[in-house]
Amino acid sequence: MRVLVTGGAGYIGSHTVLQLLQEGHEVSIADNFSNSSPESVRRVTSLAERSVVLRNVDLLNQADLNAMFQDIQPEAVIHFAGLKAVGESVAQPLKYYRNNVTGTLNLLESMESVGCRTLVFSSSATVYGESTALPLVESTPRSATNPYGRTKLHIEEMLEELAASDGRWSIANLRYFNPVGAHESGLIGEDPQGIPNNLMPYVAQVAIGRREKVGVFGGDYPTADGTGVRDYIHVIDLAAGHLAALDYLQESKGAHTWNLGTGAGSSVLEVIDAFARVSGQPVAYEIVDRRPGDVAENYANAEKARLDLGWKAERGLEQMVEDMWRWQKMNPTGFDEIPASEMTDEELAEFLGS
Ligand code: WQD
Fold first, then answer.
1. Residue nearest to atom 31 of ligand 1 (CA)
2. Residue with the nearest Cα to atom 13 of ligand 1?
3. Ligand 1 binding pocket includes 216 (Cβ within 6 Å)
4. Which atom of ligand 1 is nearest to the CA of 176?
5. Which residue, 85, 191, 231, 314, shows the most beta carbons closer than 10 Å to its own?
6. CATH number, residue 253
7. Which residues are catalytic?
8. pLDDT band for position 353 (cuts 50, 70, 90)
9. 278-337 tens-digit pLDDT
């Protein structure tokens, strides 16, 4: 199928594009490179030994978006593009509403314009808010505890109402838990800009010596060792979940929601211990104050995806850490800086061919 991937140069996007190419799909990518590098796409095309169309397109530029849709005529869209830093969203809510919600609205209208009504959406377990009913199932009531989470919640509701208004739409809302890890080649992986918000990339940067120690946000939670528990899922398993959802949508109309998690939780200290063990590097840490807005623990009930999609996460914490460590060792400072947002589509195509 002709699949258009928004944010396909990003962490989860690039791993999903690789699997789409390996499955024989024709892939085009719309990315504004605000938090990604075309280098990830170049490496993906090298790994897959197949080419992609890569366009420097911002979802807020409806004209560029429409032009791409007219040109590519995609049969399905996987939508990753979005801002996702919780703290930043609290400081700049309007930036998050405009980029995530208006961007998605523009995307849906561009899809309509070419009769493309199959969408896989990158949602998040953050829509469960501070629910304490664990494990989290898809029917758990939604709520938001920050503007980022509220954008995901609003988009899920938009998509449900769109599907209810027009039975021709096939939509998958995929609620990610905590994506971590990297492709086994070590060529692509998570490349956070600045100080990592998330635990695993921060631990990796301590292990590689880029940072002094991990600040453990709270040691007095009601969990086994007092530190936060999360459902970490390998990015390869996560990407496979997208292909399984895309297959399901070929046969099913309407809006559907699935958790993509392992169903198991790991604590901060367990992650740090695993990293020290796998990397052979000491990982210094210090227990500090809780981070506002954090919950003690959350992890998925992943049964629905197993039953509907025949999908379940296969990789455990050890492999997540092994693959993350290989990526970090091979790319101590992530992808090299490329001024991609100034590059024309022709320059991007030439770069991919290089
Ligand atoms: C994991 C655990 C922290 C950093 C967030 C978003 C969610 C999704 C995934 C986008 C928690 C602890 C962390 C650190 C720490 N993002 N921690 N020291 O908060 O579960 O989820 O990222 O979709 O929407 O909310 O992930 O990696 O930030 O935190 O102790 O330096 O690690 O308290 O217990 P989180 P995280």
1. 199
2. 199
3. yes
4. 23
5. 231
6. 3.40.50.720
7. 148
8. confident
9. 999 999 999 999 998 899 999 999 999 999 999 999 999 999 999 999 999 999 999 988
- Condensed to tens digits (0 to 9), the pLDDT of residues 140-174 reads 999 998 999 999 999 999 999 999 999 999 999 99
178 lines ligand 1 (CB under 6 A): yes
Strand order in the sheet with 118-124: 53-56, 26-31, 2-6, 76-79, 118-124, 170-176, 254-260
Environment class of 333 (CB within 10 Å of its CB; exposed 0-12, middle 13-18, buried 19+): exposed
Is the pTM higher than 0.90? The answer reads yes
Report DSSP state, residue 146.
S
Query: For residues 135 and 301, is the Cβ–Cβ distance under 8 A?
Result: yes
Quote the ligand 1 centre to 88 CA distance (angstroms): 14
Total number of domains in the chain:
1
DSSP character string of 93-118: HHHHIIIIIIHHHHHHHHHHHTT--E
State the residue range of the domain holding 206. Answer: 2-352
